[in-house]
Amino acid sequence: MQIDLTGRTALVTGSTQGIGAAIAAGLARSGARVGVNGRNEKRVAEGVERLAAEVPGADFVPVAADVSNEEGAQRVLETLPEVDILVNNLGIFGSADPLEISDEEWRRYFEVNVLAAVRLIRMYLPGMTERGWGRIQNIASDSAVVIPAEMIHYGMSKTALLAVGRGFAKQAAGTGVTVNSVIAGPTHTGGVEDFVYELVDRDLPWDEAQREFMRKHRPQSLLHRLIEPEEIAHMVVYLSSDQASATTGGALRVDGGYIDSILP
Hints:
By secondary structure, the chain is an alpha/beta fold. The protein has eight helices and seven strands. Helix 1 (18-29) links the parallel strand 1 (9-12) and strand 2 (33-38). It is globular and about 50 Å long. Helix content is 45%, strand content 15%. The chain has a seven-stranded parallel beta sheet, sandwiched between helices. It has helices spanning 18-29, 41-54, 70-79, 103-131, 152-171, 190-199, 206-217, 229-239; strands spanning 9-12, 33-38, 60-64, 85-88, 134-141, 177-184, 251-254.
């Protein structure tokens, strides 16, 4: 399948590393101009430098702003007034005793993982609708469906994000704009490596630690390994294309079979 995004402008939030960086690289390889977002200028500049080395000749736009608040979102809009492809990838996660999670922490997870996406959709969907073409994707998680006992606040936020995607897909009905969620399974990123070592012996080599984590804490996975960020990016690039024009309002899984369901 030949995916050509030439002439399209994309914004990927939280894209200086991990899944977001892999998505930014994938969209750029298909010809899109890509806004690379992070909270501070130094980190964004370093992220753009790495991506430019990975995808020579690509057009990356540094977008340094904290999109979890209104002021940061406004800075994004000033940098990229029009966006054709919006990928809400920004997210925080971590384990916690459910009875010890404070009200403030519950609110923080909602603000970063849910409201940031809502805010950007509100900003960019009208322009997409007016132009008659657009792609919005929210990066969700298997934790939205299989709520981990040690990450209830995170799971809650990702469940809410699925509802956000479905609801805005109805708002965009018949306009040429599609809105979808991508359910990412346990994925190999730097942050996840830290999380794995919170739950298994820190003295184990990484390959052994990964296997131990999957065996004990994610035994439902049919891959028996963590997913690589590029594997998530492949789905996002497809959903960003003309070829995915009939896919909207969906929650598409790139979860390695982790969710025990025959439905997507």
